[in-house]
Amino acid sequence: KGPRRGGEGQTLKGKKVKSININIRLQQTTLILLKKKAVKLGFPYQTLAASILHRYVTGHIIISNT
């Protein structure tokens, strides 16, 4: 079964959370590397980017200040 599409994503306290579209500027090399990682994992690159952002804002990824 492939990734879910259609505007609804993960739940927040039992309620469906609607997905929204965003625009973001990235360095070209960042996007190329993201797409390569996504292919290796078997995900669309947008899904991988959304997953990384979600994990960061929920505290599952910590970015060091060093």
3D structure, described in words:
- 2% of the residues are buried.
- A two-stranded antiparallel sheet has the order 1-2.
- Helices cover 41% and strands 14% of the residues.
- The chain is α+β, with helices and mostly antiparallel strands.
- β1 and β2 (15-18) form a beta hairpin.
- The model is unreliable at 1-6 (pLDDT under 50).
- It is globular and about 35 Å long.
- It contains 2 helices and 2 strands; from the N terminus they run ββαα.
- It has a domain at 25-61.
- The longest helix has 14 residues, at 28-41.
Summarize the structure.
This protein has 2 helices and 2 strands, in the order ββαα. By secondary structure, the protein is of the alpha+beta class.
Low-confidence stretches: 1-6
Radius of gyration: 14 Å
Helix run count = 2
Give the overall pLDDT as a whole number: 86
Quick one: biggest sheet? Answer: 2 strands, antiparallel
Q: What fraction of the residues are assigned to beta strands by DSSP?
A: 5-15%
Q: Which word captures the global form?
A: globular
Count of β-strands: 2
> Which structural class fits the helix and strand makeup?
alpha+beta
H/E element string?
A: EEHH
What's the end-to-end separation, in Å?
40 Å
Helix content: 40-55%
In order across it, which strands form the biggest sheet?
Answer: 1-2
